[in-house]
Amino acid sequence: MHKQVIKKTSGLTYYDKNPRKHPASQIKQLASSINKYGFTVPLIIDENDMVLAGHGRLQAAHELGIEDVNCVVVNGLSESDKRAYVIADNRISDLSDWNWDRLMSELRDFALDDDFDWEDIGFGDVDISELLADVLPEESNEPAPLEVVAPKEPYKPNVAPTQSVSEVHGGDLDKAGKKLELDNSEQARSDDLQVACPSCFHEFVVRP
User: Fold this and answer.
1) Domains along the sequence of the chain with CATH
2) What one-character-per-residue DSSP string does the chain give?
C-alpha cells in the first residue's frame, strides 16, 4: 500500500545507480517551474527514503532551499523492482510525442506576452527562436539610421575682417576662387563680411 507523506529534503537520498542525467540547464528550468507553480508533483520514494522517481525535482528543491516536499512512499518492492521502476519512470515518458499543431498554437499565444518566461515551461530562448521563427520579430544587425537634424540658424563663422577665406578654412574656400571681402555698400555696416560657401558658392553676410 502506498501513502503520501511530507518529508524533509535533507533526509532523502538519491538512487546512486540512476541512469538518467540531469544537466544544470534542466535543473534551472525545473527550479523556475517549481518557483512559479509550486512543488506539484510528489517524489516517489521507498520505505528507506530513497528516491525512485523525481531526482531532478529534488535537486531543484535543494537549489531553491525548499526543506519539505510531498512524497509517495512505495512499499514492498524488491531491489530488482526498484531498479526496474527507476528505468521505467524515465523511459516510458520518452515514448510520448507532441501534437505539434496544438503545441505551436499554444506557444504562439504565449509569444504575444512580452513578460512570459519560457523557462517556466522548460523551453529556452534558442528553442523558442527556432520554433517560432515565423512569429518572433527578427533582430537586425544593421546599424540604426542616423537622424539628420537641420540647424535652426545658418552657420556664422567667427572671423576677423582682415582674414582671407583661405585662412578661415585652410584653403578650401581659396580653391573655390572666393575671397572674404568687406561689403562697402551704403546699407551694410562697415565691418560686415561676405563669405562664400565652398560647396554651393552661395554668398552670405557675416557680422562679427
Assistant:
1) 3-96 (3.90.1530.10), 97-134 (no CATH), 165-206 (no CATH)
2) --EEEEEEGGG-B--TT------HHHHHHHHHHHHHH-S-SPEEEETTSBEEE-HHHHHHHHHHT--EEEEEEEPS--HHHHHHHHHHHHHHHHT----HHHHHHHHHHHHT-TT--GGGGT--HHHHHHHTTTTSPPPP-SPPPPPP---SS-------TT--HHHHTTTHHHHTT---EE---SSS-TT-EEEE-TTT--EEEE--
Here the cell at position 30 is 525545473
Contact 1, 75 (CB under 8 A): yes
Amino acid at the residue 120: D
Amino acid at 203: E
- Residue for cell digits 527578427? 138
**Average pLDDT along the chain, 208 residues, taken 10 residues at a time:** 90 93 92 93 95 96 96 94 93 87 90 85 76 61 54 54 49 47 48 62 60
Residue 165, pLDDT score? 45
Q: What is the per-residue pLDDT for 205?
A: 61
How many CB atoms are closer than 10 A to CB 64?
15
pTM of the predicted model, to two decimals?
Answer: 0.59
Give the cell for residue 118.
Answer: 519560457
